[in-house]
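Sample intake sheet
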Amino acid sequence: MARLPLIDPETTSGDIRASFDRMPVKLNIFRMMAHAEANMIPAMRLGNSILHKQKLSAVNRELLILQAAQLEGGAYEWRQHVPIALGVGCTQAQVDAVERGDYDAAALNESERALLRFGREVVENVRVPEAIFAAARKYFSDQEIVESIVALGFYMMMARVTEATETDLDPAAGMTVYEGGKKSSG
């Protein structure tokens, strides 16, 4: 049971109510985020832009999101993003490799290995050693490198919100929410 009550979307108003009204599924993570009234809409816009507007490929983005969830113990984010990862083209073997933290797994290609090694440094150490940064630069543009850091940071924040508040896990709604966000990112 969540440590804070989940906001009932029916009791909200203004932009937050409009945001809930557009959601295909009113996930508990959004109902918890609604406590931070001034931050909910900007956070949702950032999350949506990560999912739908970045140059970083959908597969690479989802591998990083799963990595952040795995490294941060974000059970909520893991549950919601495994179906999205599989839906956008990740394989179960790739998901399993990220879950094990095995960035040398055969299921991952060289660019994915470089990206996940980079991601681990960003999450665990903040600063990235030169060799690992150079390996990521070999495969990814400057834009994709910064987008990777933004995606990792956002999902680290969301894992902290759900874990610190013990937000109740919803059934995986992954692709329904993902597709709904695609429509609103226009």
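Comment: The radius of gyration is 16 Å. Residues 9-176 form a domain with the AhpD-like fold (CATH 1.20.1290.10).
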